[in-house]
Amino acid sequence: MNPIDAQERGIENEDRVKFWNDRGAISVPVMVTPRIMPGVVSVPQGAWIERGADGTDNGGAVTILTSLHPTPLAKGNAQHTVLAQAEKVAAVDGAGAPTPRTGRPV
Questions:
Q1: pTM as predicted
Q2: How far apart are CA 64 and CA 78, in angstroms?
Q3: CB contact set of 55 (below 8 Å; sequence gap of 6+)
Q4: How far apart are CA 42 and CA 86, in angstroms?
Q5: Which of 2, 59, 75, 101 could lock onto 38 through a cystine, CB 3.0 to 4.6 A?
Q6: Nearest 5°: phi and psi at 79?
Q7: Largest distance between two CA atoms of the chain
Q8: What's 91's DSSP letter?
Q9: Order of strands across the sheet with 16-21?
Q10: pLDDT over 60 (residue 96)
C-alpha cells in the first residue's frame, strides 16, 4: 500500500488491513511502500481461504473480492481490476487466525 493511502487510513507497516467490497472481505498484514502507486494495492495470489467467524477471509485469498464473470478476451479471473475499500483492523478472531504460511505482508 502506498504511504499516502496508508496515512489517510492510519495504517502503518505490518498492520492488519481489511479490504472489502460487495462480494466479500479479506484481512491481511500490509507492507507500506512508495513502490505501489497511490490508490492501488497488491495482494499476492494463491492463498488458501481461512474464514473468520464474521466470514472475512484472513488468509488473503483475493478471489473472495473478484467477480465470477471472466475477463472478455482471455476468459480469465478478473482479480487485477478489483475495486475495494480498505481499513485498519485491530485483530483477527481465533477462528481464522493467520498462519505462518499466509501471514506474509501484502
A1: 0.78
A2: 11
A3: 24, 25
A4: 12
A5: 2
A6: -75, -10
A7: 41
A8: -
A9: 24-29, 16-21, 85-88
A10: no
